[in-house]
Amino acid sequence: MTWNIEIENIAGILDGRTTIEPGLNAVRGSNWQGKSSFIEAIKTALGTSTELTENKDSGRVNLQTPDRDITVTLARENGTVRRSGTPYLENEYDVIRTELFACLDERNEVRSAVRQGENLEDVLMRPLDFQNIDEQISDLKREREQIRTELSQAREAKKRLPGVQEQVTQLEKEIEELREKRDEIAVSDSDEATGGDETDDASPQQRLSNVQTERSQAENQIDRLERTIERTEERLQQRRSELESLEIPADDDIEDKLAAARDQLQQIERDSEVLQSVYSANEMVLKENRLDLLTEVERELTEDNVVCWTCGNEAKREELEERLDHLGDKITDLRAQKERYHDRVQELEARREEIDQAKRRKRDLESEITELEDTLADRRRSLDEAEERYRDAQERAEKLSDAVDETVEAISDVESKIKYREAELNDVEDELSQLETRAEQVEMLEAESAEIRTEIEELRNRKDRIKHRAREAFDEAMDEILSRFGTGFETARLTADFDLVVARDGREASLDALSEGELELIGFVAALAGYESFDVDEAVPLLLVDGLGGLADDNLHTLVEYLHERTEYLVFTAYPEYTAFEGREIDPGNWTVATNRQALTE
To answer: I need a surface site. Which of 125, 221, 542, 596 has the fewest CB within 10 A?
Structure first.
């Protein structure tokens, strides 16, 4: 959970870096070593300060926390300092409450107000100015008016539900009666069309529709078959043409020629390998001058005499080398023959593959032509059958059409009425559904209205509650402070108007009578009251403390321990003469700081 910070040209620190650990972080050093400037650097990273080093045009702070990497840059432009980058605190409300109640350096406004004996209401309640309470109340009022309108509509819908439900029931009854009438007409006409044959349950319209469907299906099948037959005939013609134009190269003895060429190639390869082995071995003996390994060598001044190791006759070394060269030439000739026969084998294999491919293509074409002829015959038979079905369906459709025409008008009239009633029913059902949905929202809208009313009241009373909470927090903190410190006053409290009242010897005493250290303690108590009232720990888990030179060593330790209980990270400054603290001590000695002389020179 370590925080790493790098500083460049912020306040009095030209260059510095360190870490902040959970718990106590004491910046211990003498005057002008950068203690207060380090606090300003942290405030710059938080977004509550823009103190650029004097006579510097730019500065930077980089703060790395376990979950964020923050870089804030300061630049001097036209006499003002401009900040760029996103600081730790982006919300204006978080910035002001942190600046007032967590950045407790010597310039802190709460501490300053206590030292000056000023009324504390303005400074302790200032964060409320940034919460836009009046604007929030206006937004809630507008939302409440909208809910009231919706609630009124929901209640009206609840009243109308029974009447609309009765309309739905009546329309459903009328539609059912019209459907029964339509069925009666259809049954009557069916009996007439079929001559009273009760075995046929289908109406003339249904039978006509079925026949028309059957005719349409037959017509579609005829069209599909005709297109398929046309494509099959084209494909058959293409295959016949290809078969007629196909030529198979004639070379009946190709296999014998190929076998003979392969045998000859193998023989030449074997001869070449044998000669190459003999050549390589003898060449190595001559090159390495190791003839004595194989035969007797008589060395003379001009040349060596050698006994040939193959025939036993005497020979000169030059003669052996000449024989070896002759053998090399023969190997070269064999290699050339090998290449020629290898090319011949490849040529014959390619020729054989060409013949085989032509034969395979002929067989494939003949097979495909036979298959296409069979397919064409089947599809022509299917076309004849489909045309017969079409003619039969056409005749039956013409006969049924005459019977249907007489009843179409009556049924159409009834069906028109049914559609009109169904449309009316759909409208009424939609209206019923909307009314039911709105009616179901009555309780929810009433609850939302009550909740908004409560929120408005809470916002209106927020300032009073914060005041009460701040005074309570002040009293609680003061009680703890008094129990830990030996102060010269008995108690201190905030009045209802946020005036600071101190009691000494049972009577109200003037703040002027308090020591500097006592005023500082009260200042911290007031700041912590704001810290608790506005939940500053939710914005930043950090307290910054500076300017405690007026406290004695034991009092400083007591105050630090008290503050440590209220935050995760506590960073404070201390002079070298103070005794050690139980936590991390930050040594500013490694930082580069701007001295008064440097500032004047620059």
So the answer is: 596
